[in-house]
Amino acid sequence: MRLWRIINTTCDAPASLGREEAQGCSSTSVFFLSITKKTIIHLLFFLLLPNFSSFQASCMHCSSPKMVCETKIVADEHEAIAGTKKDSIIVSSSQMWTSSSPSPSALESKVEKRNQVFIREFERSDHEEVRRIFNEGIMERIPNSAFRGLKQQTRTQIIYAFLTVMCYVMTKSFTLTFCAPFILMGARYYYSRKVILYYLDCALHTDMADIEAYYMKPTGSCFWVAVLQGQVVGIVAAQGREDDNTLELRRMSVDSRFRGKGIAKALGRRVIEFAMLNNYSAVVLGTTAVKMAAHKLYESLGFRRVGDTEDYTLPGMTRSPLERLFFQIRYSRYRLQLHEE
After folding, report:
1. Handedness of CA 327, 313, 294, 200 (dihedral sign)
2. pLDDT per position as a tens digit, 1-27
3. What is the pTM of this model?
């Protein structure tokens, strides 16, 4: 400090000097002072440096032990200390995610479970839905038999073309000739609807009226429903025949809103499993379905077509000339051999 005072006083101008001399001394001493102060500060720093570490140690020694301990914990908090608050937060967050939001795999399994079809035996509470699905499937056959079935009936197409030509020859009217095909198609729809509605009425008043008596109580027969998301979406029946030890697949139908999900194939497999468990020699079925998708389904299950009939008579058919002209149906028989008789 004494040295510092000397440095400060060297640049002070004597009081006896004049104003100009004092100004000259002041400018010179300011320059000298700026150099001298820096030099002396550096000298003091190097002279006192050996004692600085001991001074720092003494300061640390004088500080509170609690502060030193807390400083060390902060430095090593998430590196060397197991079970820190950060780690516990991460664990709890993962637990919260597991409990509140399911993992992606859990979501996928949940979606699969929702889309999974369950096949179970018929219950009395299913009767209304079963009749609805059956009725819907039969009603679809009216336009299919009237219009789509005509593509498979070459002989009928020739007859209709001949009738159209004869209409022109006899009337010489282009208007009537143009309307003739529409009249023929209208007649086909009328007779198809008449026959199929009678067939539906017969089914709803026989086996479909009392499913338990026809399929559930007799030994070797059964009726199943397909359930998707708690709703009945498909039906199928199996009726045992003791005369040839075969099981007949009947009444298969799937709700139109749920088709294309493999429900019909699952129902068919259930019938085949039932036949194998009951030691039937074969599973047989007959169908008047016009859509090729139905025939491909049976073939994919292992069935083989064993015959077709053009003159098959459905319940309600009168076999009148007009009915034969405007309603034709092909009955196909399929068989799946399980083991030799």
Report:
1. positive
2. 444 444 444 444 444 444 444 444 444
3. 0.65
**Average pLDDT, rounded, for the chain:** 76
DSSP SS3 for 329: strand
For residue 87, give every residue at least 6 positions away whose Cβ sits within 8 Å of its Cβ, in sequence order, or none.
Answer: 78
User: Quick one: CA dihedral 318, 324, 329, 330, positive or negative?
Assistant: positive
Residues in the chain: 341
| CA angle (236, 242, 247) in 5-degree steps | 25
Helix (H, G, I), strand (E, B) or coil at 240: strand
Q: What tokens appear for 199 in the block?
A: 């067939």
Determine which helix (DSSP H) or strand (DSSP E) holds 269, and give its type and residue range: helix 263-277
Which residues are within 8 A (CB) of 3 and not within 5 positions of it... i.e. 6 or more apart? 40
Three-state secondary-structure class, residue 204: helix
At 247, which helix (H) or strand (E)? Answer: strand 246-254
Q: What is the rounded distance in angstroms from the CA atom of residue 117 to the CA atom of residue 337?
A: 27
Instruction: Find out whether 87 and 79 touch, Cβ atoms under 8 Å.
Output: no
Residue carrying structure tokens 């088709």: 259
According to DSSP, the β-strands at 304-309 and 282-287 are unpaired
Q: What percent of the chain has pLDDT over 90?
A: 54
Which residues are CB-contacts of 127 (< 8 A; sequence separation ≥ 6)? 211
Q: What is the pLDDT of residues 50-86, one digit of tens each?
A: 444 444 444 444 444 333 333 233 333 333 333 333 3
Cross-sheet strand order for the sheet of 117-121 = 117-121, 222-228, 231-241, 246-254, 282-287, 331-337, 304-309
pLDDT, tens digit, 9 for 90 and up, residues 263-291: 999 999 999 999 999 999 999 999 998 88
179 sits in which H/E element? helix 174-204
Structure token digits, residue 167: 């209409």
Tell me the residue type at 285: L
Which amino acid type is present at position 99?
Answer: S
As a whole number of angstroms, the distance between CA 146 and CA 116 comes to 36
